[in-house]
Design a protein that fits this description.
β1 and β2 (20-24) form a beta hairpin. It is built from 1 helix and 19 strands. The protein is 2% helix and 46% strand. The strands form 5 sheets. It has a 5-stranded mixed sheet, with no helix packed on it. Strands 14, 15, 16, 18 and 19 form a 5-stranded antiparallel sheet that branches. With 250 residues, the chain is an all-beta fold. The N and C termini lie far apart (48 Å). The protein is globular and about 65 Å long. The longest helix has 4 residues, at 153-156. It has 2 domains: 13-142, Immunoglobulins (Immunoglobulin-like), CATH 2.60.40; 150-235, Immunoglobulin-like, CATH 2.60.40.
């Protein structure tokens, strides 16, 4: 059960309510040591450090199944679910896999979300608005029976230039068993295009293709397991805009 309002982004500034000026904290005092976690079935757990750069802070942690905050029963647990972190201290949190859940596919990667929320401390100041700041990161679960290498997934994406409702569109397919997370997509040396976010294993996504045609080169950036950025390029050749073509990543 969650007792505090949830905010995914830090709020800064001030609010006026009932004629009173309400102070709003400018930033969260806690930070996470990683932007994602990977739980291998063979190891059954992964850990992350929560650092506190402010005053003594109580933190609450839980897992949910998707970005809509669905709190279904999951074969995972986070420990400790509640902890007090001293100033300039840190708390190690572990995500554990319980095993034996047939709802998770055995041949591909699954993803859940780890939520870490800073619980506001009581204050004696009047008209003080306190915000519970929540941080959410992806937790990828990799079954032991998976095949292929995660490092090969971004380069295995299949790109096609197709027609959709009379307009050119980019069709990108992820044939791998891993999720591929984009941080950038654009025409090499030119216009930025809407990035598709995260593409699931086996998923096909349609994207705007404004400015993409014969001879175009696309540049895209992928977030790897360690939160680092990797650069890739693809080139459309041998066909004109609107004709389906498959291109390979460099």
């Amino acid at each position: 059960m969650k007792f505090f309002p949830l905010f995914q982004r830090v709020m800064a500034g001030s609010l006026v309510a009932g004629g009173a000026l309400l102070a709003v904290p400018a930033e969260a005092s806690i930070s996470l040591s990683s932007t994602r976690l990977v739980v291998q079935e063979s190891k059954q757990e992964a850990s992350i450090s929560v650092r506190n750069g402010g005053s003594p802070t109580l933190i609450q942690a839980w897992l949910d199944s998707d970005a809509s905050n669905a709190t279904d029963d999951l074969p995972f647990a986070v420990t400790p679910p509640l902890a007090k972190v001293a100033p300039n201290g840190q708390q190690l949190m572990r995500v554990l896999y319980a095993g034996g859940d047939s709802r998770l596919p055995a041949d591909r990667e699954s993803v859940v979300w780890l939520n870490v929320q800073e619980i506001p401390q009581s204050t004696n100041q009047e008209n003080q608005l306190q915000i519970a700041v929540r941080q959410r990161i992806k937790v990828f679960f990799r079954p032991a029976s998976m095949t292929g290498a995660v490092a090969d997934a971004p380069g295995a994406l299949r790109w096609e230039l197709v027609q959709e409702s009379g307009r050119a569109a980019l069709q990108v397919t992820n044939p791998s068993m891993y999720h591929v997370s984009f941080s950038y997509l654009g025409i090499a040396g030119g216009k930025e295009l809407p990035a598709p976010g995260m593409i699931k294993p086996g998923e096909t996504r349609m994207l705007p293709a404004d400015g993409v045609g014969h001879g175009s080169k696309l540049a895209y950036k992928i977030i790897n397991d360690f939160g680092g950025i990797e650069d890739y390029r693809v080139e459309f050749s041998g066909a004109s805009a609107g004709v389906p073509i498959v291109v390979n990543a460099d």
